[in-house]
Every structure is written in C-alpha cells, then in structure tokens.
Amino acid sequence: AQSVTQLDSQVPVFEEAPVELRCNYSSSVSVYLFWYVQYPNQGLQLLLKYLSGSTLVKGINGFEAEFNKSQTSFHLRKPSVHISDTAEYFCAVSGNRDDKIIFGKGTRLHILP
Amino acid sequence: NAGVTQTPKFRVLKTGQSMTLLCAQDMNHEYMYWYRQDPGMGLRLIHYSVGEGTTAKGEVPDGYNVSRLKKQNFLLGLESAAPSQTSVYFCASSPPSAAGEYQNTGELFFGEGSRLTVL
C-alpha cells in the first residue's frame, strides 16, 4: 500500500523568496505522484504530476517538483512566491497499477509581506 | 462546463439521522472517489469506484455506504450519522489513461465540497 508524508504542516516564507515543500512517499511498486493546491474555501486543483519520463516536472503558476526514486521524495519548489500562492498544498500518490489515490496531510503555505 | 457537482453543499444533521450526498460528473470519467477532509488530517479516501456498478473501500469506509448505479453519479450515504462524521466531503472523478488501458492516471477533478455537521 502507498502512503505519503508531508514533513511540514505549515511553512512561512517572505514574498518573493524561494520555497520548498517536502513530500516523501512509501510504495512497493512504481508510482504516480501529484501535487494539488487548495485555495481558501475551494476544492483542490492539480498543480503538477509525475507519471513517467523526466524526473523534473513543471506545473502551473511557476511551480516545479523533482521525483527522486532513491530518496522516495517528490518535493515541490518555487523560486519566488507571491501573496496569491497562499494556500494548502497536498502531495498525493497512486500506484500505477492501483486505483487508490492517497493524499498526505497537507502543508499550509503562509506568505509574509 | 459543470465538471463535478456535489449536492447539497451544506447540511446539518442530528445524531442517528441518515442522508445521501450526490456527486455528478459530466466528463464521462470512469473513476470516482469520495474523500473527507478534516483539519490536520488531509484528505482521506472513504470509498471509490472504477466504473458503473462497482465500488471499493478506501482508507476510512466505516459508517458510509456508496452506490454507482449510473456512470455519471456516485452517491455517498450515511445510514446513522455520528458527530465523528462532521467533516467536509469532496467528490472527485478521474479519466483512464490516454492509451485506453483500464488504468487510472490519478489526475483528479474535484467538486467544491459538501460541509456536513452532525450534532
């Protein structure tokens, strides 16, 4: 069975500074990995995904993530954050032969002025 | 385009009452999911379906039942509501891979959520 650990429940960062949100997964099979974003009082939307191929994945709003199989990680990064990036970010995993999609507990990104 | 629609959006129940949450999607997706979201717990999978007429248990299925009689609808039922079921419920749907294989891409399209309070 797959599982996801998001190491930080909250991350404060100054506007225009870089940010990294950490995600580690556990799986005995090949995986698909995802980052979703939830803005206040909204549903979730997909930021980016890793299915196969290049380990560096680019998503919307300037975010990117790198799949590291040896460290079982899929950390999310952005070189310069904006106040509009204030949201909760969820890492998710699915085995590529499994229909379950399991989420981490989320990381709340606080942008400081 | 409606996408994924959940009804109702808000509901207050008394302990022991029953109710059904309806999820409807107009994207012809095979896969549908019900999650609950609680503070500090992220999203936890309740039940899911890989196609019309199928259902399967997720991480936290106890106290819930589901049905997928039509491909576009996925119903979540609470037979006897408990305060521990106070939560925000999200429905999501997902298409199969582009290759046409019976394989989930894992890309979820979410509804806006249904906030349920059980007193």
Pick out its properties.
A: about 110 residues; mainly beta; B: about 120 residues; seven-stranded mixed beta sheet
Helix-strand layout with pairing:
The complex is a heterodimer of chains A (113) and B (119).
Chain A: E1 3-5, E2 10-14, E3 19-21, E4 24-26, E5 31-38, E6 44-50, E7 56-58, E8 64-68, E9 73-78, E10 87-95, E11 102-103, E12 107-112
Chain B: E1 4-7, E2 10-13, E3 19-25, E4 31-38, E5 42-49, E6 56-57, E7 65-67, E8 73-78, E9 87-94, E10 109-110, E11 114-118
Q: What is the structure about, briefly put?
A:
Chain A has 113 residues and is mostly beta strands. Chain A has no helices and twelve strands.
Poorly predicted sequence stretches spanning 5 or more consecutive residues of chain B: none
Question: Which strand-content bin applies to the residues of chain B?
Answer: over 45%
In terms of DSSP E residues, the strand content of chain A is: over 45%
Distance between the termini of chain A: 41 Å
Coarse shape of chain B: globular
Beta-strand segment tally of chain A: 12
Please mark out the parts of chain A with pLDDT under 50 across 5 or more consecutive residues, or reply none: none
How far the N terminus sits from the C terminus of chain B, by CA atoms, comes to 35 Å
**Integer average pLDDT of chain A:** 91
Q: Roughly how much helix do the residues of chain A carry, as a percent range? A: under 10%
**Average of per-residue pLDDT values of chain B:** 91
Number of helices of chain A: 0
Query: What class, by secondary structure content of chain B?
Result: mainly beta
Task: Please report the two chains with the greatest interface, counting residues with C-beta closer than 8 angstroms to the partner's C-beta.
Answer: A-B, 26 and 27 residues
Radius of gyration of chain A: 13 Å
